[in-house]
Amino acid sequence: MQVRTFIARTMAEALSTIREQLGPDAVILGSTPVPEGVEVTAAVDAPVEPVPARQDDALSDDAAFLIRAVAFHGAPTTLNERICRRAAEIDDPDLAVSLTAGIDDVFRFDPIVPRPKTSLALVGPPGAGKTVVAAKFALEAALRRQELRIATTDIERPGGDTRLRELAKIIENPPVRLSPERRFEFPGARLIDTEGVNPFDAYDMARITETVRINDAEPVLVLPAGGDPYEYEDMAAAFRGIGVRRMIATRLDTARRVGGLLAAAGAGLSFSLAGASPVIADGLHQLTPASLARLILSDPDADTALNRNRKTA
Ligand SMILES: Nc1nc2c(ncn2[C@@H]2O[C@H](COP(=O)(O)OP(=O)(O)O)[C@@H](O)[C@H]2O)c(=O)[nH]1
Ligand SMILES: [Mg+2]
To answer: SS3 of 298, please?
Structure first.
């Protein structure tokens, strides 16, 4: 594989030089703004990602760039096609605008704003970042002087609630240790951090369903970026089966690809918040079509608003 970097005034110029010098099979690996314009890294002889075919006419340089940028993330091809088709309809000179429209068209976004009566249960596979998300919610509530009591059902595994307890010392909001089959009695806003489950294990799912039911809680899936898209599609279906509608993405700082998250969203889960740092004080971000579009179009190794913590992670 031959990898080369090109600097040009505009993306269109860079793409035409790349085509000229590396041929029509060149793959764009990433781009980053530089004082002279834009720096684009391209390669030839690399396996080319599947590209949605258009028979009618040749793709414009921008359209080709957009398709490659989306394909890089590895979401199922049918999803990529839907996103790119809508983006092509918009055909704004600013690719981010077109892609925002494509993302907005294909996925649902449903922000989580804790209210005085909110009852949420963070569910997901082990190690997804549930406890860090719970701690971030607790800290943000404390900073806004909102009441939010936290409970954890991760009480059997040694250290399951260690981080929450450490944080609780600082914000004076100790988490309640809750048996998975007991109700968390509290009249105000409640958040339950749960033990990790295997979504394909009927016993695990029955147990978590009971925790959710007893607490009249909304189960919210916590899912780290970087996972396998087809695995995440299955996972999303399994969690939808127990009433999950929204997900919180984590580890956007360490993953280069968000195709797994796109696949989970394509399987019917709404995007809401995102975490991009293990540091609790870094908090959570609301995920929007525009921020996701910028992330997808960005150089996977560059910082964006969503993953700028990667250097310190
Ligand atoms: N880099 C990074 N690490 C994270 C993030 N969220 C969680 N982690 C780390 O991932 C590991 C598992 O997180 P934890 O909250 O305990 O996961 P849980 O098992 O779902 O409760 C811990 O080492 C966390 O510090 C994130 O957004 N970025
Ligand atoms: Mg945990």
So the answer is: coil
Distance 306 CA to ligand 2 centre (A): 23
Whole-angstrom distance, CA of residue 154 vs CA of residue 157: 6
280 lines ligand 1 (CB under 6 A): no
Q: Measured between alpha carbons, how far is residue 19 from residues 12, 26, 28, 70, 265 in Å? A: 11, 7, 10, 19, 34
How far, CA to CA in Å, does 75 sit from each of 35, 47, 225, 273? 33, 16, 12, 20
Region of 306 (left: φ > 0; alpha: ψ -120 to 50; beta: rest) is alpha
As a 3-state breakdown, the chain gives helix, strand, coil percent values, each rounded to 5, of 40, 20, 40
Q: Output the CA angle 92-19-17, nearest 5 degrees.
A: 80
- Domains in the chain: boundaries: 2-106, 119-312
How far, in Å, is the centroid of ligand 2 from the Cα of 207?
Answer: 16
Residue with CA at minimum distance from ligand 1 atom 10 = 129
Q: What CATH class has 119-312? A: alpha beta
307: Cβ below 6 Å to ligand 1? no
Structural contact between residues 276 and 307, judged by C-beta atoms closer than 8 angstroms: yes
- Cα 88–Cα 89–Cα 92 angle in degrees, nearest 5: 70
The pLDDT value recorded for residue 311 is: 41
The H-or-E segment that residue 66 falls in is: helix 61-72
Three-state secondary structure call for residue 61: helix
Residue recorded with tokens 């997808």 = 296
Q: Give the other-Cβ count within 10 Å of 78's Cβ.
A: 10
Torsions phi, psi for 14 (to 5 deg): -60, -45
Render pLDDT for 147-159 as a digit per residue (tens, 0 to 9).
999 999 988 877 7
Task: Give the tens place of pLDDT for each residue, 84-110.
Answer: 999 999 889 899 999 999 999 999 999
Q: Which residue's alpha carbon is at the smallest distance from atom 23 of ligand 1?
A: 278
pTM: 0.80
